[in-house]
Amino acid sequence: MKLETLVKPSVRTQPSYEPGKPIEDVARELGLDPATIIKLASNENPWGPSPKALAAAKAALDHSELYPDGGCFVLRQKLAAVHGLGADQFVIGNGSNEIIELLGHVFLGPEDEVVFGGPAFVVYKLVTLLFGAKVVEVPLQHWRHDLAGMARAITPRTKLVFVASPNNPTGTANDAAEMTAWARALPEHVIAVFDEAYAEYLAPGTAMDLRPLIAEGRKVIGLRTFSKIYGLASLRVGYGYAGVELVALLNRVRQPFNVNAIAQAAATAALDDREFAEKCARENRSGLVQIEAGLRELGLEWVPSVANFMLVKVGDGARVFGALQARGVIVRPVKIYGLPDWIRVTVGTPEQNARLLAELKVALASR
Ligand SMILES: *Cc1c(COP(=O)(O)O)cnc(C)c1O
Fold it and tell me: In testing the pocket of ligand 1, which one of 91, 94, 97, 125 has its CB within 8 Å of the most ligand atoms?
């Protein structure tokens, strides 16, 4: 009997996630020196982690023989202080992607529907399909989530609705007050998931505050990550925050030691280095301005971004992606998001942004 015939139907048809290409892969494939390659493909922090986070990670390595604290006590205490919530209102994940999967474990089966934007972060679709639930994709309007359209797409079978703000791959945010009013008007049987992976990049005072909704007992959860502004993508740590009942349910389905001790230590220390995170947010805003100026000079169209990446219209996205890669600049083709004419570029350091713009000019000329 073929192994494939024993596989669950949802797994048999499961699409795979295509990550940004690692520098080492590109170096090997093209015979380039890895040191000359820059990766602006996965919205990672070009400034790396905070030195304090790095020191904490190194110190934690010394006790690698011990299991980590499965309850992430110290990190949750720190998060509670940062957000002004209870420590029992946080669930820590192996990246915030794991929290998305935990939501699937708790809530999704073949009878259920999940509403999200199109295009939005691809993991919402992957997790929905993995649990055999139905994908209900609502096209963005003017590159933003169509909140009214998403509300109309809700049926009695809808369990989860995802809103990423800023959204990936668009870099656009919805208005905070509109999202709050929208969440208050959702039917009782729907859980609203606000993916805030890039919230720290927003201009001060423009991010949504989920805490009033949580305090009102609404079925909402916020997702955050240490992979982006905190520069800890390789350590895999993110979190969800919500009411205690929802957090307890997510904790029920996670593995006991899902977050390693090095990640916990680094994440806790990263939260102590506010100055570093604020510096990265400031650098990112000037990087966006730098890239926009360069794109204007090249006569290219882009989607104005409030995140640490940007969609750029280049004509044939796959070709330009390939041409840039051959010149040692890795960006992201976004055909899988239904945007074959575009690429997504991460904001780098000023030097990396200049290199991107220079190579983009060459790539566009070489056809
Ligand atoms: C990068 C990203 C995440 C974070 O994923 P991790 O698993 O925490 O690395 C979550 N949501 C969106 C929209 C993202 O772009």
Answer: 97
The pLDDT confidence band at residue 367, using thresholds 50, 70 and 90, is low
What's the 197 CA to ligand 1 centre distance in angstroms?
Answer: 6
Cα-to-centroid distance, 302 and ligand 1 (Å) = 22
The residue whose CA has the least distance to atom 10 of ligand 1 is: 197
Parallel/antiparallel/unpaired status of strands 329-330 and 38-39: parallel
d(Cα 186, Cα 160) in Å, to the nearest integer?
11
Q: pLDDT tens, 191-211?
A: 999 999 999 999 989 999 999
**CB of 197 sitting under 6 A from ligand 1:** yes
Among 3.30.230.10, 3.90.1150.10, 3.40.50.620, 3.40.50.150, name the CATH number for the domain at 3-48+275-365: 3.90.1150.10
pLDDT beyond 80 at 23: yes
Answer for the pair 173, 167: CB distance below 8 angstroms, yes or no. Answer: yes
DSSP 269: H
* 51-270, CATH topology level: Aspartate Aminotransferase; domain 2 (3.40.640)
| Centre of ligand 1 from the C-alpha of residue 194, in Å | 12
pLDDT at 111: 97
pLDDT in tens, 274-299: 999 999 999 999 999 999 999 999 99
Q: 310: part of which helix (H) or strand (E)?
A: strand 309-313
